[in-house]
């Protein structure tokens, strides 16, 4: 069962690498239109929000043992949120949109001048790097959770994989877009793009192997990690979504609809997963 999960995780990792690499290439070739970028961000934010609430939180509660399970899960979720807020405040890696319309809009709302992007490039890379490590750990540990449910009718870790797959191109787009604006050459941008695209897959594979080798899948450690990841995912979703709805009154309706569609997709995946689990567990109840 672990070998099947490892093979599936390898396929997930290859897809995440390709998505992140293509996202960086898109930033190097040109920029997306402002409206399309905002709609995509809202859709992805809604999906990540749904994955945090419908997938990560329930799985964390299942894995945490002992008394006060909910209190422990909430504490680790809060830890994840606080850490991500700290990273956002210190490293300022929120900006995903580099269109001309976005630049004018951010200037109007005192989001800083163009020189700040070049000055904070290292901070953006560090912030998104830690953020990516959190996603990789969440994917690796979720695969261990899925591999322990023998006979499940859905692919383990599918929801978290899709959340990362949809969000990672935006992160790569941010880093390569800022490097382009700062005047870095094509070779430097390509090297950074490859390194960033590899980070999440490598962390996911290392987490999967580490949890298995240390025997942590039998304890509460995975539950704490998933609760922490839920808090981080919540912060990622809301930090990408709320500022856009606030500052983009002309597209507010489209952004809200995109948010609801993203949440709906996450819930649909949760519903399919729950139905499959109940279907496989029903015979054991006799």
Strand content: under 5%
Separation of the first and last Cα atoms: 25 Å
The total of helices stands at: 10
Which stretches of 5+ consecutive residues score pLDDT under 50?
105-117, 280-286
Radius of gyration: 19 Å
Q: Which of globular, elongated, flat, extended, rod-shaped describes the shape?
A: globular
Number of strands: 0
The assigned structural class equals mainly alpha
Helix content: over 70%
**For the residues shown, what is the average pLDDT?**
78
**Major β-sheet annotation:** none
Written as H for each helix and E for each strand, in order along the chain, the element string is: HHHHHHHHHH
Q: What would your notes on this structure say?
A:
Helices cover 82% and strands 0% of the residues. Helix 1 (2-29) runs antiparallel to helix 6 (121-148). The longest helix has 30 residues, at 34-63. It is an all-alpha fold and 286 residues long. The chain is built from ten helices and no strands.
Characteristic key phrases:
286 residues, mainly alpha, 82% helix
Give me a quick take on this structure.
By secondary structure, this protein is mainly α. Helix content is 82%, strand content 0%. The chain is globular and about 55 Å long.
Please outline the helices and strands.
Elements: H1 2-29, H2 34-63, H3 69-91, H4 100-108, H5 114-119, H6 121-148, H7 158-181, H8 186-214, H9 221-247, H10 252-281
Helix pairs in contact: 1-6, 1-7, 1-8, 2-7, 2-9, 2-10, 3-6, 3-9, 6-7, 6-8, 6-9, 7-8, 9-10
């Amino acid at each position: 069962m672990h070998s099947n999960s490892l093979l599936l995780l390898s396929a997930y990792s290859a897809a995440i690498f390709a998505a992140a690499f293509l996202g960086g290439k898109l930033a190097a070739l040109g920029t997306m239109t402002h409206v399309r970028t905002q709609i995509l961000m809202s859709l992805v934010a809604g999906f990540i929000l749904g994955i945090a609430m419908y997938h990560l939180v329930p799985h964390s509660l299942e894995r945490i043992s002992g008394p006060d399970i909910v209190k422990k899960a909430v504490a680790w979720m809060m830890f994840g949120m606080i850490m991500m807020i700290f990273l956002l405040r210190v490293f300022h890696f929120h900006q995903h949109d580099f269109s001309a319309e976005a630049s004018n809009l951010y200037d109007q709302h005192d989001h800083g001048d163009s020189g700040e992007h070049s000055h904070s490039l290292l901070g953006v890379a560090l912030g998104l790097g830690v953020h990516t490590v959190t996603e990789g750990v969440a994917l690796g540990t979720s695969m261990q959770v899925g591999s322990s449910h023998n006979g499940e009718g859905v692919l383990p870790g599918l929801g978290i994989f899709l959340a990362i797959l949809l969000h990672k191109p935006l992160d790569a787009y941010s880093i390569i877009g800022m490097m382009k604006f700062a005047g870095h050459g094509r070779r430097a941008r390509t090297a950074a793009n490859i390194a960033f695209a590899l980070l999440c897959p490598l962390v996911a594979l290392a987490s999967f192997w580490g949890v298995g080798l240390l025997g942590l899948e039998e304890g509460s450690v995975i539950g704490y990690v998933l609760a922490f990841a839920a808090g981080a995912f919540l912060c990622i979703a809301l930090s990408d979504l709320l500022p856009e709805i606030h500052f983009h009154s002309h597209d507010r309706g489209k952004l809200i609809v995109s948010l609801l569609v993203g949440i709906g997709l996450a819930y649909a995946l949760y519903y399919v997963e729950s139905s499959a689990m109940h279907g496989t567990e029903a015979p054991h109840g006799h």
